[in-house]
Amino acid sequence: MATVLPTETPQFAFADINDLNDLLKSKQVPAGSIIVGGKNFGCGSSREQAVSALKGYELILVAKNFARIFLQNSINLGLQTVTCPTFVAVNDDIVEITPTVVVNVTSGKSFPVIPLPEARRAIVEAGGLIPYTRKRVMAKARVS
Amino acid sequence: MGMTVVEKILARASGIPSVKAGDVVEPKVDFAMSHENTALVMNQFQEIYQGTGITPEIWDPQKIGIIFDHRVPAESPKTASNQKKIREFVAANAIAKFHDIRGDVGGICHQVLPENGYVRPGNVVVGTDSHTTSHGALGAFAFGIGATEMASVWALGAVLNVEVPATIKVNVKGKFKKYVGPKDLILDIIGILTAEGANFKVIEFHGPTIKEMSTSGRLAICNMAVEAGATSGIVPADRETVRYLLKEARVRGKIEMVKPDKDAVYEQVIDIDVSTLEPQIACPHTVDNVKPINEVKGVRVNQIVIGSCTNGRLDDLAIAAMILKDKKIAQGTRMLIFPASARIFNQALTKGYIGTFMKAGAVVMNSGCGPCLGVHEGALGDGEVALSTTNRNFKGRMGNPKSEVYLCSPSVAAASALTGIITDPRIWQRLFIHLATIFPPTLSIPAAIWQLFCRPKRRNLHSPTSTI
What we know:
The complex is a heterodimer.
Chain A: H1 18-25, E1 34-37, H2 49-56, E2 60-63, H3 68-77, E3 81-83, E4 95-97, E5 101-104, E6 109-112, H4 118-126, H5 129-143
Parallel strand pairs in A: 1-2, 2-3
Antiparallel strand pairs in A: 4-5, 5-6
Chain B: H1 5-14, E1 24-25, E2 31-34, H2 38-49, E3 64-67, H3 77-92, E4 97-99, H4 109-115, E5 124-127, E6 141-144, H5 147-156, E7 162-163, E8 166-173, H6 182-193, E9 201-206, H7 208-212, H8 215-223, E10 232-234, H9 239-248, E11 268-273, E12 280-282, E13 290-292, E14 303-307, H10 308-311, H11 314-324, E15 334-338, H12 342-350, H13 353-360, E16 363-364, E17 385-388, E18 404-407, H14 410-419, H15 425-438, H16 444-453
Helix pairs in contact in B: 2-5, 6-8, 11-13, 11-14
């Protein structure tokens, strides 16, 4: 919906995981925490608030795979997402993320990551779509 | 190597001779649509130019469409103020294709665009709404994007870094049985593919059944392609597309048709014969939890909804009116009808459908997204059940996480409104003809008897199959 701007906090981040919503709202989930998702994470609407809410809590997402629009919005807004189809973890495990593998330090196992295509990485490296487009707009202005 | 229809569209829009699935391209955009979330797009658009010293300028205001549909008329001062801000922006930027809250040209974006001829075959169309896939019905490559991406499109006129999607070809043959139609077909396909089966892919529809299908039906199937995760659904343009654009959208000039090559490469081919297809129902709380009506009929329903960008078009209203004519909606069940656009509302008024609905006891609402997304009107009470012709049934979709939403075709919705339980319209027809001969004066009596005889089955509890 148009009515939630990035500076505002949506009512909740997850549709039906009330315990997690409560933890997030009461700031009991420290920044940099990892949310482990299943398959087709973020399936549904094109609205960006699904992404900006999680980014607002400074979370990192590791899931088996992501729904297209959600993944695209994450890249555009700079929410860190990691596609890792085999990843297994339980609450409070310590996890280390590298460009090629996700290591569950607690269980001692590591899981391969499916990297983003190069073109998408360019947006991530620019810090999101706004700085990326800004560069393009400035380049265009210089040419004309 | 041959190209699919979307590959052809993307190659042309990117100014290169050919592309294949997996390539990364930067296609020029032919039409960019947003609704009330334009407010967020405006915010991000300003942000792009922050600190550059360059004045923000939309690349081509003629190619932008802004349609108010999600909360119309505004339900709160906050929404009203947002809409006011967008109106001011529209005026300042000379955006002509703006559809405000109006009883003549307003409506849901996914109906307003086609009926005004804003979308043509071969176009690249983006919208800040996941059901932008709808416009594939006119042979365009149309897909949903976020508000930040739209801001980037406003600045550059192109979508950056589009990965050419692989294509699933769906061949459809056979004649639909009576009271079975496009909605049942797409629900069946979603059931087969699942909610992620077409993620990052396009569904290209072919076959004699599609050739015979009206643009209205094609809009319904392309609309819901996203529920299988698809980037877009597409029906390559044909004679029906041209007929629709010339006759109904009143487009002038030559209409070009983009067709796939005969040797195009498809990732998967699915063949479907609809001649044996039964009415299909998507059960709570995921759209891919699809069952034939036999497995769910008898579930007690509190609210019936007919409308939305999926099934709020004239032929949808026509079949509902035919079923409801001179009959009464069951006691204890309420029925909400919202045509997809003001133009359709007016046509339905002329044809007498609106009168039929109101006499039957239905509430007819203004065109808009309305109860479908539950933020504005038509919310459900705790423990209530809705049967709806809309496109999503996620938990809380109609405004209450403690309610359940079943999705169906307009004929199932109308037949069920008469009985108050999920009802197969084909059985309804036989029963009513039979009972109407016994009780001709008051046709609500047979409905009462129907409820007595057909006691609701024990409710199935369906568990969600995918995340969020």
